[in-house]
Amino acid sequence: MDITQTFYDNLAPQYDKLFLDWQSTTHEQALILNKLFQNNGFDYTARILDCACGIGTQSIGLASLGYHVTASDISYGEITEAKERAVKNNVNIRFEHADFCALSEAFSEQFDIIIAMDNALPHMLSKNALEAAIKSITNQIVIGGMFVASIRDYDVLLMDKPPYSPPYIHKTYKGQRVSFQTWDWYDDHYKLIQYIIYDEKTLQISKFECEYRAIRREELTNLLISNGCSKVVWKFPEETSFYQPIVIAKK
């Protein structure tokens, strides 16, 4: 099992604690994605694959809006958590365990839209690995379809290589919950440690470790174009209200 699977398998039971209100976030992000889809000519009949679904933050919200959603992830822990949350939200989603570098091994069909949100692509720790992921994803999109992904703004972060991310502090009825990350950089890679601190009736601290490679927008744009996408557009938080830059690639 690689470092990414281990990271998300361990984080899965606590992933929702990164949000003030995970349930509200699923709805808010679904509305943002729905607007992007509609602005690009798609409606609720679009067949969507969330190829890095995590615990279902985007896929459950989109299914609640009426989209036909299939969801996959490399983490068994997150797939298990996502299935339980889909049942609680009364939505019907097909879940599969799949590596987005090898989607054809799990899916024989193609999709109108594939999404990979929340900084999933930078888990690819080399240019070759990223290219394999992009090739795998674009091969599962129909002609005329679309790929939508979000990543951190590494064009900015690589200028200063900050050692940590600002903390999120969420007030709870028992106290507060604090989450933040430390980043240990070497070249364009960084080791990430995610901390989740419960300062409620008792103090509890959880720690999860992973690694990322900072991907510049130009690199990702070029890979998308060289793998069958005819148009690539970047949208930023001030335009979309999403917390990360979003790339939209039409095939």
Please give the oligomerization state of what you see: single chain
Structural class: alpha/beta
Beta-strand portion reads 25-35%
> By CATH's scheme, which homologous superfamily of the largest domain applies?
Vaccinia Virus protein VP39
The CATH architecture of the largest domain is 3-Layer(aba) Sandwich
CATH class of the largest domain reads Alpha Beta
Counting structural domains, the number is 2
Strand order of the largest sheet: 3-2-1-4-5-11-10
Give the overall form: globular
CATH fold name of the largest domain: Rossmann fold
What low-confidence regions span 5 or more consecutive residues with pLDDT below 50?
A: none
Radius of gyration: 18 Å
SS element count, helices: 8
Distance between the termini: 33 Å
Taking the sheet with the most strands, its summary is: 7 strands, mixed
Helix and strand pattern: HHEHEHEEHEHEEEEHEHE
Please count the beta strands (DSSP E, at least 2 residues each): 11
